[in-house]
UniProtKB/TrEMBL annotation:
Signal peptide: none
Assigned protein family: Belongs to the MtrB family.
Record-level Gene Ontology MF annotations: RNA binding
UniProt domain Tryptophan RNA-binding attenuator protein: residue ranges: 2-67
Keyword Transcription regulation among UniProt keywords: yes
Official protein name in the record: Transcription attenuation protein MtrB
Any single biological process term in GO: regulation of DNA-templated transcription
SUPFAM superfamilies noted in UniProt: TRAP-like (SSF51219)
Length: 68
């Protein structure tokens, strides 16, 4: 089973960027969230990393982290 993350924006304009898996890491998807919006994301065979820019809470099975 793949890992899921919940990302909750705590300000307008939070960017969530998916990065590819493989020899060359590239951006493959981007979302922009406004305050209070929630995005549920998943690591897949194509997604090896998720970058969060802006103030947000990131919740996973490993706990909760805040991005500033």
């Amino acid at each position: 089973m793949q890992e899921y993350l919940v990302i909750k924006a705590e300000e307008n304009g939070v960017q969530v960027i998916g990065l590819t898996r493989g020899e060359a890491t590239k951006f493959h998807h981007a979302e922009k969230l406004d305050q209070g919006e929630v995005l549920v994301v998943q690591f897949t065979n194509h997604t090896s990393a998720i970058k969060v820019k802006g103030k947000a809470k990131i919740i996973s099975s490993h706990g909760e982290v805040s991005a500033d």
